[in-house]
Amino acid sequence: MADKPAVVLVHGFWGGAAHWGKVITELHRRGFGSLHAVEIPLTSLVDDAARTRKMVQQIDGPVLLVGHSYGGAVITEAGDLPNVKGLVYIAAFAPDAGESPGGISEEMPPAAVENLVPDSDGYLWIEQDKFHESFAQDLPADEALVMAVTQKAPLASTFGDNVTSAAWRAKPSWYQVSTADRMIHPDNERRMAQRMNPRKTIELVAGHASLASKPGPVTDFIEEAAAG
């Protein structure tokens, strides 16, 4: 296990660290001994990047940062630490400096945008009865129901938070596109991947929650990045 980097997994909007559950068990089975899944507050990009940096700074040795969805914006912002050796994007936002997830989505709106509902406290939710079709249409209904009921809503203002420095401009990166994504337009994913000139891009026939619906291929991809 000593030759493998530590893997830090960063979740996105409408989920928590447990969304990585299947990938965590698969990485462990493959000999990754240093696994971490940060629980970010989804209150602002500053807060979420700070929480991620704190976890990375506690790790002695090289780190591979893996972000799903909005977690991609977080690893883009927090990935400048010297022990971060690579960035893996799983159906994720990869903003450049001065860009926000919301601004990127406005260019090519995702199919499920109409299923997002704000509450009176400023948090943005996916309607529970629309969660399965929006976020995880390729998961069993029961699994999607649990995700819907336990969803972790972000403050809506977080969508507009700009990245200040894009770590993918300096660090090796890898990108997985979900071709049936309804939360980030697949063509937006392809555009973000292409401009970062990653070591490798793969496409999976999957919805937004590819980390849960395609844990095997996602783990393969993380393992390949770790070896690279």
Q: How are the secondary structure elements laid out?
A:
Layout: E1 6-10, H1 21-29, E2 35-38, H2 45-57, E3 63-68, H3 71-78, E4 84-90, H4 101-107, E5 116-118, E6 124-126, H5 128-135, H6 141-149, E7 173-178, H7 186-196, E8 200-204, H8 210-213, H9 215-227
Parallel strand pairs: 1-2, 1-3, 3-4, 4-7, 7-8
Antiparallel strand pairs: 5-6
Helix pairs in contact: 1-9, 2-3, 5-6
**N-to-C span:** 15 Å
Strand proportion, as a percent range, falls in 15-25%
Low-confidence stretches: none
CATH class: Alpha Beta
What's the structural domain tally? 1
Structural class by secondary-structure content: alpha/beta
Helix run count: 9
The CATH architecture classification is 3-Layer(aba) Sandwich
Query: Roughly how much helix do the residues carry, as a percent range?
Result: 25-40%
In the CATH hierarchy, the third-tier topology is known as Rossmann fold
Summarize the structure in short:
It comes from Streptomyces yanii. The protein has 228 residues and is of the alpha/beta class. It is built from nine helices and eight strands.
